[in-house]
Amino acid sequence: MVDLSFSIYDLEYFLLIFVRVSCFVYIAPYFGMNDTPARIRIGISFFTAWLLYETLTPADAVVVDTVMEYAVIVMKEAIAGLLIGFGANICMAVVNFAGSIADMETGLSMATLLDPATKETTSITGVLYQYSFMLMLIASGMYRYLFGALADSFTLIPVNGVVFHADSLLQSMTEFMSDYILIGFRIVLPIFCVILLLNAILGVLAKVSPQLNMFAVGIQLKVLAGLTAMFLTTGMLPGAADFVYQEMKKMVVSFIGGMM
């Protein structure tokens, strides 16, 4: 006969695990997208928390005396889960940055659309890159690493063991901002070089043939050259995704280290 009895301490301990996991799923890449059904996110959070609860020793249950103490622990676990998910999610912003540069160079910066995932107005190339990188995130199994990092965080940072080090977290964000621009330009570098070469050619033609309207001709050539370069460099996206995923791993580890 299955014994489903549990104590109030076990319930409190499970809820603390559930809070950290649910906050991570709420903001993590792919799972935190607005077009992901809420029932799916709740189900993933619940069953992941249940598996972690069965793995962790119940002897580590947190005993509190007042509701206020328990509320403080809940807030600490929620912030810990949000920071771990934020460390992974912020790296996907590099893709939108690269798409904005590509659209600015090709003359498509005015053609924006509403991203159903973020409910924000983004560039066309940014949305294309974002969904391509999300697809590669699932195909490459990167989501397993994210959940593995979340599970390991309970070993490194036990429940009610979160200690926030502001200097370490700030240093992680500062290092990320330096890599943010570098990775973004690496993604869009082929398109940037093609448009730069095209601008040089148009500048020479404008001097050689002043009677030609290079402004009208240049707009069409930039769009054609930009789309052609984007099509020819599609095979380079997996390599660019590796840069983003390596940065994602680095940010998750540094954020966990900043809470130990």
TrEMBL record:
Top-rank lineage group of the source organism: Bacteria
GO biological-process terms attached to the record: bacterial-type flagellum assembly; protein targeting
Transmembrane segments: 13-32, 78-102, 180-203, 223-245
Cited Pfam families: Bac_export_1 (PF01311)
Topology class, membrane: Multi-pass membrane protein
Main location as per UniProt: membrane
Subcellular location: Cell membrane; Bacterial flagellum basal body
Span of the signal peptide: none
UniProt keywords, alphabetically: Bacterial flagellum, Cell membrane, Cell projection, Cilium, Flagellum, Membrane, Transmembrane, Transmembrane helix
GO terms under cellular component: bacterial-type flagellum basal body; plasma membrane
Keyword Membrane part of the UniProt annotation: yes
Keyword Flavoprotein in record: no
Family the entry assigns: Belongs to the FliR/MopE/SpaR family.
Role played: Role in flagellar biosynthesis.
Protein name: Flagellar biosynthetic protein FliR
Organism: Waltera acetigignens
